[in-house]
Specification:
palmitate, mainly alpha, Variable large protein, 7 helices, single chain, 192 residues, lipoprotein, plasmid
Length: 192
């Protein structure tokens, strides 16, 4: 019996360390001025692949089948594994959706030709928003506290203000060449 429980403990430990690796990768990504949009997409793809690699099946297979007479421990482990698989599958789907975002332009790129701003891709923005909302919902369902809206204003190095960098999003005004740099500087300031 003790050997079986040790094996269950080792399996749980492996799952735990797989999750730690996933979290470390999540916290380790930073968009810089030269980061391409497709790099962000590839990053989310790799997170989805890592979630797929987390194998909870081994834990449920090694659950002690004959240890307790009523099978309560085995049933509890199986239910926990099944619930976790459902959450991970949903999370993987959201990350896969985010992985389809981007092109070969840097994150702060905006077309700055006179009379032409950069129009957003509404369909892609909606898909990203829905995926991010889904990830937040999963986090709330598993007990994480909901984020609170802050009132901090970001200022990039060199004094670029958010409203100056946002000029690149205008489709009816003429963004100037240095507006792109301001937007990139603001993006590079955001981390976490």
């Amino acid at each position: 019996m003790s050997e079986v429980l040790l094996e269950v403990g080792r399996s749980a430990e492996n799952v735990f360390y797989s999750f730690l690796g996933l979290i470390a990768d999540t916290l380790g990504f930073t968009a810089k001025v030269d980061t391409k949009k497709e790099d962000v997409g590839e990053y989310f793809d790799s997170l989805g692949e890592k979630i797929g690699a987390v194998s909870l099946e081994r834990l449920s297979e090694k659950a002690p089948a004959g240890v307790d007479k009523d099978g309560v421990l085995n049933k509890t482990i199986k239910e926990a594994v099944d619930g976790s698989k459902k959450v991970l599958s949903t999370l993987k789907g959201h990350l896969k959706s985010l992985g389809q975002v981007g092109d070969s332009n840097v994150v702060g790129y905006a077309h700055n030709a006179k009379g032409q701003g950069t129009a957003p891709n509404d369909e892609q923005l909606k898909a990203m928003f829905n995926s991010l909302t889904g990830i937040v919902e999963i986090a709330k369902e598993v007990g994480l506290k909901e984020l609170k809206v802050g009132s901090a204003t970001l200022r990039a190095t060199g004094g670029a203000d958010n409203k100056e960098g946002a000029k690149i999003l205008s489709t009816n005004n003429d963004p100037e060449a240095d507006d792109v740099g301001k937007a990139a500087a603001i993006l590079a300031t955001v981390s976490g």
